[in-house]
């Protein structure tokens, strides 16, 4: 996501010829888009994306269970 934001910012600066980016080659301006594509390809092939999604689902499940325990008044007491 950061690569896309950087790419968008550089593209706008280049297009409107603002600042030092106006003198850069378009290859340098468009490079963050290629970096974003490479990052997404790596994240999908390595399983990083699915792992992060599973961690988020697990966190939501634990938070939901904790909220239900608090509502039942079972937060402080544990069964032994």
Order of helices and strands: HHH
Secondary structural class: mainly alpha
Overall outline: elongated
Strand content: under 5%
The chain-level mean pLDDT equals: 92
Structure description:
- By secondary structure, this protein is mainly α.
- The protein has one domain (2-72).
- The protein contains 3 helices and no strands.
- It has helices spanning 2-15, 26-46, 48-72.
- The longest helix has 25 residues, at 48-72.
- The relative contact order is 0.09.
Topology:
Elements (H helix, E strand, L loop, with lengths): L1 H14 L10 H21 L1 H25 L8
Can I get a quick summary?
The protein has 80 residues and is an all-alpha fold.
Q: Which structural traits does this protein have?
A:
3 helices; mainly alpha; single chain; elongated; 75% helix; 80 residues
């Amino acid at each position: 996501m950061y690569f896309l934001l950087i790419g968008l910012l550089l593209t706008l600066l280049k297009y409107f010829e603002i600042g030092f980016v106006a003198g850069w080659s378009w290859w340098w301006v468009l490079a963050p888009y290629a970096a974003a594509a490479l990052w997404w390809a790596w994240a999908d092939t390595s399983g990083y994306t699915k792992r992060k999604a599973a961690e988020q689902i697990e966190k939501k499940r634990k938070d939901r269970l904790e909220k239900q325990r608090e509502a039942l008044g079972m937060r402080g007491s544990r069964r032994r």
